[in-house]
Design a protein that fits this description.
CATH topology of the largest domain: Na+/H+ antiporter like fold
Number of strands: 12
Low-confidence stretches: 403-423, 698-706
Mean pLDDT: 79
Number of domains: 3
Strand order of the largest sheet: 4-3-2-5-6-12-11-8-9-10
Helix content: 55-70%
Largest sheet: 10 strands, mixed
Structural class: alpha/beta
CATH class of the largest domain: Mainly Alpha
Radius of gyration: 31 Å
Distance between the termini: 53 Å
CATH architecture of the largest domain: Up-down Bundle
Shape: elongated
Amino acid sequence: MTTLGIAILLAAGLAAAKICQKLRLPSVTGYILAGLLLGPTGIGLITDKSIGTSLDHFTQIALMLIAFGIGEHIELKKLRNHAKSLFYIVIAQSIGPFILVSLSVYFTIAATGFSVEGWLHQDYIALSILLGAVSIATAPAATLLVIKELKAKGPLTSTLMAVVAIDDGLAVMIFGIAVSITHKFIGHTDAPFFLSIGNSLLEIFLSILLGLCCGYALSIISGKMNNNAESMTVGLSILLLCSELAIYLHLSSLLAGMTAGFTLINKAERDVRIFRALNHFEPPIYILFFTLAGTHLDISALSAAGSIGLIYFTARIIGKILGVHIGGWMSNAMPAVKQYLGYALLPQAGVAIGLIFLISSDAPLAQYSAVITPVVLAGVFLSELLGPIGARYAVTKAGETSTSEPASPGTNTDEDIRNSGNTSIELAPWTWQMLTPKKNLQDVVVFGAANPQTVAGLARTATILAHYFGAIPMAVRVERREKLPDEAFHLEKKEVASMGYPLLTEHIPDHHPASGLVAAVEYNNAKAVVLGYPPVNSDKSQFQNILETVALHVSCPVVVIRFYGLMHTERILVPITDLDDLAEVFQIVCALDAIGEHRIQLLYMISSTAEPKDVMQKETDVKEWIEHQNKKLNMAIRAVPTISRVETIVEYSNKIDLVVMGVTKSSTVHRLFFGSLASTVTKKLRKPLILVYNANKAAPLNYQEK
């Protein structure tokens, strides 16, 4: 019977969705209506007696996939410009319905003369507070499905996804506070008020922590998968394990799933293949979930709820819309967000129903569940039907809908990358014209001259930078001995002379190379400092310490060169994820372009769901930014929708000689959970690589090779 039930739910749900699409209604509305028709309220074909609880597993799977999908839309870079408005809107759209529903229910009870035998005045106040707390919760599942169906994206969509992700966590917390207040109010507890609040906050914290761990595990394991089938299998197994752990530990699986998706999408490497792989698995699960939800809706709840149910539903809608308006006004949010976001927050289902069960299982509050249950179920019934329509209206009016399919480039496997190139270091002979230094040069570009294998390449790079900055290259060697032999700087002098420049040298007798380099850079007021990453198979631990010390204590850019194979610079790849990345490396790229005949390819990696118009706009943004710098560069600009940033860089590096990247500022915790694109590229790329660290803008990375 279970298999037959699945077949009926899938077929009926899909058929109803097609009819709704013809009527320009969201597909999810069709799924719910199909379930309503099949359930006890309709023809009674799908009931608890006929299928029991055998389909509950699909509900858990669907909820985790929905939560994970919501996390994909919460991208910090997109939201950072709206952080202030997001904070005010989240708070206001939570407080709005809480206050409005509580007051409306209380005054409705007083006006209609509603009474329950044995209840005192404080019981009606408690009932009003509890209904107000339940009204905060939203149902992100229906909203997400509408967003996916319309392929919506933009400020309103990003804000909406962040709001629904935060909203349920906030709803649980406020509900916990409301329950504590109610217990105190009706005199059924002596527990400290702060203890109840602390328990709610602890549950939210542990749910987020579980999601972070899940997201981190997904990023490590999925990166080793070779195809979509493996990614889907691994992703589903980890997400379901996360869901079961959350249930076992009495945490929020919804919040944990959202956090896992949030972690993946905000990692610097951003490999979204697992999202795309799971997209192929989701449709039948979603149909089962929403159609099954429809079978549990009961029209009789509408009559049982009476006027209180109608007031609850209406006040909640007004509270959400009004709250968004107030929050948007306080934060000066974008007009589209302020005007339409509230309409997308109407759905209410899973969390609200869960809160009802919590009330009924709480002995002092169980007496209120006889009234609360039909009222909330009536609100759920109406909001699940009207909510998706409201969400569609919001994103359509905001102009954020789309029907185009995303493009994605191919990628190479890790094995192909590891087998390309060789580990020996070679420097192509200088064949360009001799450079002519300016007169009376005072400034310097410092480079470390410790390793004979890399010193010529460092000398060449430092000379190119010195020519651009109007400076002289300076070789610095930090050693314990008091005096160096005459031939100590022979290799670097020869390389610099071949380019037409003189070389300054400085020997610093110091036990600590890092402090010696910092002293040389700061004393000589260097324009830049150039360091060489140690050759493959050599000890890198000392270099890591030197890099961290120098990067944190000098006031000029630090240029780190990772040599690999033949070092030459005719064809340069500059991968970026936003204009801030370009600003990090811009002066270094200009310096390279000023020498000889270079071909520079700027690779702007954008969202995998970007449309052709978005691609063109990004390329235009880069051109305008460069023009604003008053610099002329021989640069080809290409914006590319990207599924995996690392794989995209590796793919495009096949036809270039050198990659130039900036190092973005990040704390240790941030790098732990969100990773570092530059560090990962350093491990996988088999090409010469220049990493640029700008003082006060970036943090040193751990360049440990595999």
